[in-house]
Amino acid sequence: MHILPPVRPEQSIARLTAILEPIAEKVKVIPRKRITWTYKGRQQMYLFVEGELSMLRASDGLLLVTVYEPHLFGIAEMIQPTQGHILRAETESIILRAEADRAAELFREQGVWEDVAALLSYHTAYLIYRDAQVVQQRTYSVIRNHLQEMILLSEEARMRTTILDYIQDRTLLSRSSILNVLSALRQGNYIDFKRGGYLISVGHLPESF
């Protein structure tokens, strides 16, 4: 069964963002630039405003999630600065940077820790959702899940990355295993992609293949 991703807490994100915007510094980030959680030795929070931003596992660069809508990063790191993840801009992007200590003070003053908890819960639920997509799944199931995820992206986003790169960035599957499944699905008219491997359409994919 295809598991749906958790629902973004839009109102909580909007309230937290409104509180942080007045103290945040605007930063333009070039494509492929990696962003760490500290700046001048101080823990930071980041308001993603525009572009395309990914979160990577610091240990091996595995891509965990890519966001295209305004979002707030650094809540968990503000409380537990483990440095287990880093951010990377995929396109030219705009972020707002705010000191985590000052952000925590404002959250206490404004009484918005319920919104903080909602966002933390969303991030935790998303990691559980992602694990369900890849951990202890058969190769076909992992590829199927990512094709269903990828087709929900805008055409512009899909034309910026090949199916192979999209899946390899997010999993530990080999190039050959991915290509074999994609070839079989295309021959069965389950998917269609243009020259170079850019996804055009996905039909009803079988549960097993």
SSE layout and pairings?
Blueprint: H1 10-20, E1 25-29, E2 34-35, E3 38-39, E4 42-50, E5 53-57, E6 63-67, E7 71-73, H2 75-79, E8 85-89, E9 93-99, H3 100-110, H4 113-134, H5 139-150, H6 155-158, H7 163-170, H8 175-187, E10 191-194, E11 198-202
Antiparallel strand pairs: 1-9, 2-8, 3-4, 4-7, 4-9, 5-6, 5-8, 10-11
Helix pairs in contact: 1-4
Please explain how this structure is put together:
This protein is of the alpha+beta class. It has two domains: 10-133, Jelly Rolls (Sandwich); 138-202. The protein has eight helices and eleven strands. It has helices spanning 10-20, 75-79, 100-110, 113-134, 139-150, 155-158, 163-170, 175-187, and strands spanning 25-29, 34-35, 38-39, 42-50, 53-57, 63-67, 71-73, 85-89, 93-99, 191-194, 198-202. Strands 1, 3, 4, 7 and 9 form a five-stranded antiparallel beta sheet that branches. It has a four-stranded antiparallel beta sheet with strand order 2-8-5-6, with no helix packed on it. The chain starts with 9 loop residues before the first helix and ends in a 7-residue tail after the last strand. The model has no long low-confidence stretch (mean pLDDT 92).
